[in-house]
Write a structure and sequence with these properties.
20% helix; single chain
Length: 71
């Protein structure tokens, strides 16, 4: 997999390459989507990370069961 160093602030393209590599290298654990764009028209990525990241949608502040269904 790809690595990202924080000894210096990484450039946007390096961050996006790292995000893409995580989604590609760990498809069962990482789901990537885009939640918007910056004022510079750059994509803002969202990563869902975890054993049940695929297909699971949560609303912040709402509890979910182990299977991902709402409580």
């Amino acid at each position: 997999g790809s690595r990202l160093s924080f000894e210096e602030y990484p450039r946007y393209d390096a961050i996006m390459a790292y995000v893409d590599s995580l989604a590609r290298d760990y498809p069962d654990l990482v789901e990537k989507s885009v939640i918007g764009k910056t004022h510079e028209n750059r994509k803002i990525p969202l990563l869902k990370i975890g054993k049940s990241a695929k297909g699971r949608t949560e609303t912040p502040g709402r509890p979910v069961r182990q299977d991902g269904s709402p409580v």
